[in-house]
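Cont'd.
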Amino acid sequence: MALTRRAALALAAAQAATPFAARVALASAPTRNRLVLVVLRGALDGLAAVPPLFEPGLGALRPGLGPVATDGEDGALLLDRGFGLHPSLSALHAMYRAGEASFVHAIATPYRDRSHFDAQDILENGATRARAATDGWLNRAIGLMPRQGGRLGIAAGTSVPLVLRGAVPVGSWAPQTMPDLGPDFLALLDQVYRGDAPLAAALAEGRRIHETTGSVLGDDARMAPGTRPGPALRAMASGVARLLAEEGGPRIASFDLAGWDTHAAQAQRLRQLLKGLDEVLEALRDGLGAEWRRSVVVVATEFGRTVRRNGTGGTDHGTGSVAMLAGGAVAGGRVLGDWPGLAPEQLFQGRDLAPATDMRALFKGVLAAHLGIARAGLDRTVFPGSEEIRPLDGLLRA
Amino acid sequence: MSKAGHLAVSRFGMGPGPGEVAAAARDPRGWALAQLDARPATSRRFDDLPTGKVAARSFTRFVRGARGDADARLPESARSLYMREAVARIAVQVEGAAPFVERLVAFWSNHFTVSIQRAIVLPLAGAFEREAIRPHVLGRFGDMLLAVARHPAMLLYLDQAQSAGPESMAARRRGRGINENLAREILELHTLGVEGGYAQDDVAAFARILTGWSIAREDEFDPGSFLFRARAHEPGEKVLLGRRFAEAGEDEAIAALGMLARHPSTARNVATRLARHFVADDPPPALVGALSRSFLESDGDLAALAATLLRHDASWSAPVTKLKTPNEFVVSALRAADIVPEDQRIVGALRILGQMPFAAPSPAGWPDRAEHWIGPEAIMRRATWAMALGARIAEGQRPEAFLARALGDGASQATRLWMPRAASASDAIALVLASPEFQRR
């Protein structure tokens, strides 16, 4: 009953403002909230991104890896509870100060070994073991939302990452550098793909997105061939955000950023990598426009890195890292999570930041508060067997 | 005639070269097996390209410096060398007379990934494949593993060149220390596999065993070549997988790699990955078992391993569910079109299609499952690229003849039915290239 009324109200509002096609899609959208999951592949050094400046041993443990104080090279920006923020994340810091970003430190998936690839598998499959599922938790979450035909999920990029793969059809998109396929050729392809269900489904989703991007982004859907990686990522973030902002557009996106495996020369590489992340977050905010207030961007990585500097100016594979939340819907301005400490006896296996918060608690907290997914579904379907992992409360504005 | 010719050139080849589908159809297994008698694959296209040693010598000074990372400072010449290497590689894949061997080169190159995601690999990736992979694809796994681990591209990509044992002279005098990146990835990816039965202590021990494996700098003898730095080597006995390795300097890692190359977990890992690459994302267990036994019994003879793959019935009877990678798709389309790419536009095309040469996202290499490559945008882009190629070759081309050459008897009813309805010869050719039977293998 309530749903029906809400849908009717939404439809009335839409009729006043939007053309017919978007109106139809809006009537079927189960939520007006937007969610973007940014996966940092290669393992972000959370202690360099969000350094615990209050830890007395920080400078000695981690010389030349990233900020350890508010002054000097890589001087940190200030956060709550004595934490700092890497200076490359200046736009994110501005969001934090505006109450639109927060951090969860010492966070980790249930995985306790140190393979990137198994760890990413678990970060995405939502299980406690690698290869335990061939679909992703975000796809399963979408499957629990009420739907009437629209496509809620979209992957930024040409491929769909595991986290968004599964039974529910999703799109993928990246800025275009080639001419569009004509409708006649697409109609022929449709016929030829009929005997191959996965290809037919991919083609159908691709066409659907291209039709939307054509009308929503116009010429901005295009990018010059040979655009360098930084601007290309910004263009992709901006385009996907604008699709999300559209009334009839998708609501949930995944976004991959690679290259975080800083075994050597970490300080200079992180300066660039975090700058790239900062620009992507800014482009998402700008692209979401007025819908930013209904948006949450979650930034997560597969595990953290060693507390101590390794022998080559970098860090090796670790355990606890940091996750970030940004968006107008975030109850921001805070650093969350129990802090396990950096004294030798406080480290996991004597080398890593100990995990204090389960990554699934963060994801569950966001899915519950932002997308209205019920606890039973979160416990059993989205993150199977996670009954004991309580969703984090209070992440978002009431 | 069955679809055997089409299956052979798709699953075990680089796509339909001129006359190849028909030739393979007569004796698919024999067509592939005969290629194993060929000399190790090389090409005149590689003649003008510098060795890894020369490339490393030209660029090692960008590797030096306080933090030892070149990524932000490499000159444009590194990028142009990468482009020449990438174009040559694609051209050799297109015109190679032993396409199955080219597929093996690509498989092993991906197994032992070095990636330009680290910029220092830009000028070295091509040399790595030519020097560490190609000479050994029909040789011994242990030799390839050793060549890989000693090549400057790998020593730099996985940060081994600067690693120093905690108790070594270099660590005590100059504050350098250990880096476990290469050690971990050799165990996890190249040899035992993630479930191969090693622990963090083994990673740490192997990292200490590898200390000292490095590259000669400009001011040292024979710059750019492999150099064992005794002063960076961790002294003393190490224990890896329960086996004691007495202090033996450079030879310690040679012995350890030899042990790893013969390990049953390595056999299992290699067998699984090989079968997954060629036959099915979840390969038939019987095939994996046969490959694993072949690997162990032949002491890692890769020609024998390849022959085992070709001789096994499951290799031919498994349903066609793999999707060509973008690289395989492009190369097979160019073979069908009989076009050898000569400039860097082909590199740009592969970038757009999601598989820029030597640019795998991580040390694990390019994903080898269909679901990764079948993203909606990815499939749209393949069709768009097929249109562009169709437009380029349509003039004077009869679509029916192109269909026969590209698919032979592998063409589906649907493709045969709908191709004549295409608006132009160009569209018809594009439809053949974008068809499921051309994209799958």
